[in-house]
Amino acid sequence: MAVVGEGLHKVIKNGSIPQVTIHLLQLRAGQLLGSTYFTIREAGNLRKAGESEERITAVATWRDATYFTDAERVALELVEAVLTPNPSRERVPDELYAKVSAHYDDKALWTLIMAIAHIGFFTPAALIAKPIPGMPPGRNYSE
């Protein structure tokens, strides 16, 4: 698990997308998944990056908030599309793909995909093993 996690970390830190965008996307993913661990972790990462409490709080209601760039908005829209069930149509329609592609080149698009995959990979651990929010990796599980 650690090897795959390290590989995903390396990919999402390749510089093609600002790390703040990755943290915003992963915070929204944590909210959608109902994971306190992911939500606290990513809110903390955003604070460490100097983001305002208003921006962090507004991630939950990003569609109505004025705090996000167009590129950040499309990243948030993409993670919602991937993680929200949509039984009547495809989750990522061509129109959304075109919006994402207008803001992100191929490398950046794959970085977004891997940032979502990173959350997806660790979701079972976050929901089943219940890591302790706010504790560093490796010391975040009770004995």
Low-confidence stretches: none
Total number of β-strand segments? Answer: 0
Q: Count of helical segments?
A: 7
Fraction of residues in helix: 55-70%
Major β-sheet annotation: none
Q: Strand pairing plus helix content: what structural class? A: mainly alpha
CATH class: Mainly Alpha
Order of helices and strands: HHHHHHH
Q: In whole angstroms, how far apart are the ends?
A: 19 Å
* Spatial extent as radius of gyration: 15 Å
Which band does the percent of strand residues land in? Answer: under 5%
CATH 4th-level superfamily:
AhpD-like
Domain Carboxymuconolactone decarboxylase-like: 9-80
Protein name: Carboxymuconolactone decarboxylase family protein
InterPro entries: AhpD-like, CMD-like
Pfam families: CMD
Commentary on this structure:
- Residues 9-80 form the Carboxymuconolactone decarboxylase-like domain.
- GO terms for molecular function: peroxiredoxin activity.
- The chain crosses the membrane at residues 108-129.
- InterPro entries: AhpD-like, CMD-like.
- This protein has 143 residues and is an all-alpha fold.
- It has helices at residues 2-12, 19-33, 36-48, 53-58, 70-83, 94-103, 106-129.
- It has one domain: AhpD-like (Up-down Bundle), CATH 1.20.1290.10.
- It contains seven helices and no strands.
- Helix 1 packs antiparallel against helix 7, helix 2 packs antiparallel against helix 3 and helix 2 (19-33) packs parallel to helix 5 (70-83).
- The two termini are 19 Å apart.
- The mean pLDDT is 89.
